[in-house]
Predict the structure.
Amino acid sequence: MVILSCAGRPAADRLPRLMPDVRVRFAPSPTGFLHIGGARTALFNFLYARHTGGTFVLRIEDTDETRHVEEAVQVILDGLRWLGLDWDEGPEKGGAHGPYFQSQRKDIYRRYVQRLIESGAAYEFEDKEKGGTVVKFRMTREPITVPDLICGNVTRPLNDTEMADPDFVIVRRDGVPVFHLVNVVDDIEMKITHVIRGEDHLSNTPKHIALYRALGAEMPKFAHIPLILNSDGSKMSKSDKGAALHEYMNAGYVPEAVRNFLSLLGWSPKGDVEILSLAETVERFDLAQVQRHNARFDHDKLHWMQGQYMLKMAPDRFNAMARSFLAKTGLTAGQPDDYVLRVLGLVKEKVKLFTELPEWTTYFFRDDFTADREVIVKTFGSAPQSWELLEKLRSRYADLGEWTHPALDAALRALAQESGVKAAALIHPCRVAVSGKAGGPSLFHLLEVLGRDRVLNRLATARERLKLD
RNA sequence: GACCCUGUCGUCUAGUCAGGCCUAGGACUCCGGGUUUUCAUCCCGGCAACACGGGUUCGAAUCCCGUCGGGGUCGCCA
């Protein structure tokens, strides 16, 4: 098999086919953070494994021991778990094909290198210039064709610099085997059937194929997925904003939204659907619909998708996540649980990102809030009589029997009518006076939650607080 | 420099492999209108693309060639 085609297949063929022998892997290097592109590669591997009923292996590529930090591994595991991508074999899970850290597989690599040397496919080489002895692999001079499930048959001849010296190093001067070797060896040992990885590896794949041949091992199927670019089309490197998954974790994104957004970068479920649960994505996912060209990261669309998930989020989960974010800001320290919960109930439909929470809720927890000059001018600038109305409203509210939103509503409207103004002429000044904001939750619900003491107090001090000078 | 991948609205994409069903569909953004006591949401409407140039064909976004653009690889990094 060489190329999969997606259109025109019989309908029955579109149903998920169980291929329990499928084994895919995500093999990140512990660099201290999880790149968003890496996360997407992991996602595609995961989706393919779940779609086919196969196995998803996680392997840590820490050949360069100086870089192997326990903490750096944890970042990867946390990121994958956050996205909901649980692996079947790997760190903290074990499995029949371990160990899953390359730093613990040195004997295996040594054996394979020995085999290559004995068969004449590799040889020791003394580098006179750099000094030391390395092991080099005798690379084929002929062009090699990569059968790729996404790109088709890609034939790559050696380029000019490779032509000058086709053989490449597989064991460094310090005795540590390089990526190309360990990657292939591990995929053979772990019985990987499908190598799904970033397109940046496509040009190196002929080297890997040559290694498989020299080792007499069966080649896996390759699927090189397009890369994720910055929104301006430039390459997304580690230092770019939004390149690391933890930025989204910290910024208050819902994991499902990020996962959903990522799945649509370079893959399409067809049929004009965009909001898909993990289960729906698993059911529809296939390599045949993966795009061939790179995709730009569109922050606006992610933000929109985040809003969609936020809106649908169950209140309990929203409250739990919101409280943990709020706790970090110290805003809710010492506040009664019950009050915090009522505030959250009020702003749930407004908040799109958890990091926006302080903006929406600060005035519920602190009395020293201010208002933008622009808001004050717009509300009171052309209507100085609002101050007197607010005074009157305060005395009505002071005498209010029960402090409920219908009662607050009725009292305000009655006053407006008696004063010959529209309700809105009272509602807006009141909102600004008690919250300092031009927008927010329904005013009467807001007043109800704020409570009589706070409202009366703020109404009394509004003129002083919102003074323009 | 060489080699490889790639090119549909500003962005993500459907349509391309089996040429006509495409006066090119959806979504995000933006603009206009409506709902809402405000803001956000939501609803309705609108702007906007087949990179360019040749061919093949009755007919091309779809097939072929070239050009240009974008990305990748060529490490004793992974």
Q: What stands out?
A: The radius of gyration of chain A is 31 Å. The longest strand of chain A covers residues 122-126.
